[in-house]
Amino acid sequence: MSAMINHHVSDELLLDYAAGTLGEGWSIAVATHLALSPEGRARLALMENAGGQLLEDIDFDASAEVDQNDSWQRMKAKLSTESAQAQRISAPATRAAGSATIPEPLRSYLGGDLDQLKWRALGRGAYQIRIPTGDEESEVRLLKIPAGKPVPEHSHGGRELTVVLKGAFSDGEQVFRRGDIEEADESLTHQPIATPDEDCICLAVTDAPLKFKSFIVRLVQPALGI
Amino acid sequence: RTDRSDEAVQVDFARLLASVGRHKDVEAFEQLFKFYSPKVRAYMAKLARDGQAADELMQETMLAVWNKADQFDPARGNVSSWIFTIARNLRIDAFRRAKRPNFDPTDPAFVPDDVQAADVEYEQQQEAERLRRAMETLPPEQYELLKMSFYREVSHSSIAAELGLPMGTVKSRIRLAFAKLRSALEERT
Ligand SMILES: [Zn+2]
Ligand SMILES: [Zn+2]
């Protein structure tokens, strides 16, 4: 099954995701790819294990102001009030019934699977759905490219991540299929084209163009303390 | 980097955590708390505005460890990496107030792993030990880069700027580091 994925997430992008520094928009693309890539998840597990090792090895001042015993007493006091509540939260994980084409976390962002989506025409037979996130630095969209046609309005000044969900696209010599991820940056000029057999549905995350509005928000942010 | 008999320690921690998960074993949790709480506090202190904020986030993390202990799967990872992921997610929540999209293994569209080997728990401990040794032999500049990536809330482009290195050098150091760790884990003893 994992052999089907040919294009994987890069170490540097995966490390940002593992360390917790990757923004929400980019993370949707990485997590959606990982849902379809056992091999990618094995690499993530290695990075999280490295994170665990670094946590074990972290430097700390054992004689610091914190009294360990006092710290434990405070913790212990919380446990007694928490135990009853905890029992209710922990339900065993079970595999959800039914079938789906779009994996989590993307399906929840879209509010449904493929047959429930409301597409907006982009022109020349292509469609898109904008996916709102809390992340200002990226723009997240689902694209439907007609069979044999190029990806429309295609220019990006920075990073672009594309994850194929249905169909396939070719870019130069390479073909990207379900689960594959393509990482492009401003140095790469490319022309993705949907393969001729069927429409291609993919998730595309790009650098958001810097908006005047958000620039002002950023300027006043420190004053507001947010 | 301290030298301990980590393998034995990790096996014990997995057993202690399992006991917390099954019986809400306070004594087992106390041992985990004494070992991990100063480390989690130090991890939070890399970003927190003061010691008290770091302490509160540590308490929140350890409380989550207590509450979620029955979800810990020793076949999937060791105790340190599991606690790391809990602390990391709380840190994203506290400092960035952002969501961290994640895949869901119970989702019908999820492509499951190939069937795992029988004694996975033992395998995980062996692997943790091999990883620890491999990390000790990483070239210092690669080890430092991993520390910066995991401890601090900065992107690789900011790390590159801070170290005065081209982005390409940072990327290739990351690739070299993980290539080395991966090949160390592939060597079966
Ligand atoms: Zn992959
Ligand atoms: Zn592009």
TrEMBL record, chain A:
**Which lineage?**
Bacteria, Pseudomonadati, Pseudomonadota, Alphaproteobacteria, Hyphomicrobiales
Q: Which domain of life is it from?
A: Bacteria
**InterPro entries with a match to the protein in the record:** Anti-sigma_ChrR (IPR012807), Anti_sigma_zinc_sf (IPR041916), ChrR-like_cupin_dom (IPR025979), RmlC-like_jellyroll (IPR014710), RmlC_Cupin_sf (IPR011051)
Source species of the chain: Peteryoungia ipomoeae
The secretion signal range is none
* Annotated ranges, domain ChrR-like cupin: 113-205
Q: Pfam families given for it?
A: Cupin_7 (PF12973)
Tell me the protein's name. Transcriptional regulator
